[in-house]
């Protein structure tokens, strides 16, 4: 068939074959396999690792994803049949080309950059969550402290008012006791002074010709 292999690099090769008018099928079968050993391998279709179907309108195909510094065999058949030796060619790939190595390095650097960016975002999110949690907890503690202070102030005020009331009652009791000691018979007078309403009791007449006088001597004394 006059198959030729051109433009061989470390990972690609172009296979060219002449058009065959007798090919009744709608495609060509391009088969290739690495590490070919003609002494141990046969030309059976099962012996080939890769197979590509190319329309009959084309007479060339670029084989890709090859391994550098590797011996390959490529065969082209008109139909889906086992190829013969005159339909095959053996070629060797070159070393890895600089462009491919550069692309690999770029892909590796891009992968490392993406991974680092994701890790940094995760760390930043964790730190932000921790700061917000600490701020919320401190705010909660301040509010609880204010509420506790208000309750303590209220309790102190209530206790103070209770103490003042007790002291006032004590002073009144002491005043009454002092009055009794100075005026033994004047307790009624002190009672009247404390309760002026006692002076409003009705008076009873002693006789028809006598003037009305109040029943309580203390009220008369006050009047």
From TrEMBL:
SUPFAM superfamilies recorded: Fibronectin type III
Pfam (any one): fn3
Keywords linked to the UniProt accession: Membrane, Transmembrane, Transmembrane helix
Region (Disordered): 202-223
Transmembrane region(s): 110-136
PROSITE patterns (alphabetical): FN3
Annotated ranges, domain Fibronectin type-III: 1-96
Name the record gives this protein: FNDC9 protein
């Amino acid at each position: 068939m006059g198959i030729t292999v051109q433009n061989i690099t470390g990972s690609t090769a172009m296979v060219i074959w002449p058009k065959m008018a007798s090919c009744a099928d709608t495609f060509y079968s391009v088969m290739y396999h690495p590490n070919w050993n003609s002494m141990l391998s046969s030309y059976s279709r099962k012996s080939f690792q890769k197979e590509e179907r190319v329309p009959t309108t084309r007479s060339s195909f670029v084989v890709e994803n090859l391994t550098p510094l590797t011996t390959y065999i490529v065969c082209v058949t008109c139909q889906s049949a086992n190829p013969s030796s005159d339909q095959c060619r053996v070629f060797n790939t070159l070393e890895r080309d600089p462009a491919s190595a550069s692309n690999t390095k770029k892909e590796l650097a891009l992968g490392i950059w993406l991974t680092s960016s994701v890790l940094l975002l995760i760390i930043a999110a964790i730190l932000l969550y921790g700061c917000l949690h600490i701020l919320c907890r401190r705010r909660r503690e301040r509010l609880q402290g204010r509420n506790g202070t208000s309750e303590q102030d209220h309790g102190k005020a209530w206790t103070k008012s209770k103490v003042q009331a007790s002291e006032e009652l004590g002073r009144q009791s002491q005043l009454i006791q002092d009055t009794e000691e100075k005026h033994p018979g004047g307790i009624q007078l002190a009672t009247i002074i404390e309760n002026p309403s006692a002076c409003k009791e009705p008076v009873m007449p002693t006789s028809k010709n006598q003037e009305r006088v109040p029943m309580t001597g203390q009220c008369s004394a006050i009047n």
